[in-house]
Design brief:
alpha/beta, 270 residues
Length: 270
């Protein structure tokens, strides 16, 4: 963990929508250069935790401390994007310019910055392409570039691995690790336990509260996973990384497989 002052500190934070509690008594910090995966079942409060860190939701109880000038980059779930909207890759990235938000045009310097970002992220050749004509990994890189236009201190991604294949997952996680190495704190939510175990140095398990927080080898334990997911799971180790499987130890039940991939596998099996 980086040895520097935290960017965000949550202390005994609780949040509710009306009378319905979503997260309770959460304490955690986010430091520069950290790469953090937040895991838990649907409805566990993962996205709410991201919003509390970003400041788009306010704690009902407890405190969230962050510098007033903290810059947040947000990458949305790809399922929420209208891929038929008539816009090109470079136009999407330009939308992330905080300077351009106060005027109806973009400067030549902003356009040059878009070109540099897309080139650095390996998709410079797609600059004028419609966003619908991109692969899943390319789409993620476009929205990461848009978020980077604001020079964020923290990059937040909501389910960036949802619906992508194994190669794309690895590419996205490698990209996020390279961004964290520059000093940007990166936080993502995911259902892919084995992806975070292999690629992320810190995992936060949440189900209404933080059940475990730390290195994957310490966090991904049967007792923690039972409390978080309500299911019995087993852990095996491969090349120093924990691998999570269900208690029946059947290959089709590897935890973290994308549901669409599992449905496809079953269909191919007849």
């Amino acid at each position: 963990m980086p040895k520097s002052d935290p960017l965000v500190q949550l202390h005994q934070v609780s949040f509710a929508y009306g009378s319905d509690p979503v997260v309770t008594d959460i304490s955690m910090t986010v430091a520069p250069g950290e790469l953090i995966g937040v895991v838990g079942p649907s409805g566990a409060g993962k996205t709410t935790l991201l919003k509390l860190i970003a400041g788009t939701e306010q704690a009902v109880l407890g405190s969230v401390n962050r510098p007033q000038d903290l810059r947040i980059g947000w990458v949305p779930q790809v399922e929420t994007v209208n891929w038929y909207f008539p816009v090109t890759v470079d136009e999407v990235v330009l939308m992330g310019s905080t300077a351009g938000g106060s005027r109806p045009w973009y400067t030549s310097e902003e356009r040059k910055r878009v070109h540099r970002l897309l080139h650095d992220l390996g998709i410079g050749h797609l600059e004028g392409r419609h966003i619908r004509r991109l692969s899943g990994g390319q789409q993620q890189r476009v929205f990461v570039a848009r978020a980077l236009m604001a020079d964020p201190d923290i990059l937040i991604l909501d389910e960036p691995l949802s619906g992508v294949d194994v190669k794309t997952r690895q590419d996205v996680l490698d990209l996020l690790a390279s961004l964290a190495a520059t000093g940007i704190a990166v936080i993502l939510t995911t259902h892919d336990l084995n992806g975070v175990a292999a690629h992320l140095p810190r995992v936060v398990c949440i189900n209404g509260k933080v059940v475990a927080d730390g290195h994957p080898a310490a966090v991904l334990r049967p007792a923690n996973l039972l409390e978080v997911f309500g299911a019995r799971m087993e852990i095996i180790e491969h090349e120093g990384h924990p691998i999570v499987i269900d208690s029946h130890d059947q290959p089709s039940n590897v935890i973290g497989m994308d549901p669409s991939a599992e449905r496809s596998r079953r269909g191919n099996a007849g």
